[in-house]
What we know:
- This protein is α/β, with parallel strands linked by helices.
- 37% of the residues lie in helices and 13% in strands.
- The chain contains eight helices and ten strands.
- The chain is globular, with a radius of gyration of 19 Å.
Amino acid sequence: MLALKNLLKSNKFIYLFISLIRKFQYFVFPLMHFNLKKFLRVHRFYKNDSYEKLKKLKNKHIGERCFIVATGPSLTILDLEKLKNEITFSMNSILLAFDETDWRPTYYGIQDENVYRCLKKEIEQLNVECKFISDTILKKLDIQLSTNDYSFPLNMLNHTIPHKKYHTKFSNDIFSVVYDGYTITYALLQIAVYMGFREIYLLGTDCHYSSNMKHHFKDYGHVDPTFASAGEMMISAYQEAKRYADNNKVKIFNATRGGELEVFDRIDLDVALATNN
Length: 277
């Protein structure tokens, strides 16, 4: 297989042709399909889809604040305990901590089908106000949405193929589109803005996968195959979120303990909790 790959690479015309085919297969065609469905949905040619009820969430929390709890290794159980009286979003393996705390997130999100496979049983049993599950998961796995589940239209952009330049966008209309930012936290930022939150605190967003492989608050046997560059990719997306926030009177703070995310102003969690809306 390696010899064949090297042979193909040696012929630049064949290699270019194959690269173009792969680009069309994994990027161009999916993007065309996504944009067609988006056009039909937004312009009301097609109404009976799973995204309709997202519109009920528009400005549900107008002017309020929330905490988005990521699952970086800096997060602690004590942090979760402190958030019991706050509106919170969380994600992925956070539910593995529930035997150590009676805190529960208000909202839960997930967009990686491999993570979903690892945590399927726990996710199905999770009792929160609602769960946000990307349509990319629904397309690849046989899942039935419950009454409190929301599917969101995730645009993966060019993130499914190798590329030299990190790129994303920020959406304020999740009924239309949610852009991938290399992490579910980025999707939840867009969802929070759509729901009307104007003060958003990030916690556990370390943006750094250490060489000792302790990448998450709770280990669940999943390793991001892009972990070597994942921090840089996520930070590039957060820069786009910062541009949107600055231009639209949204305040985003980083309450993470340590880590490498310096895009947003830092604030100590206790100080943030002591600050009134």
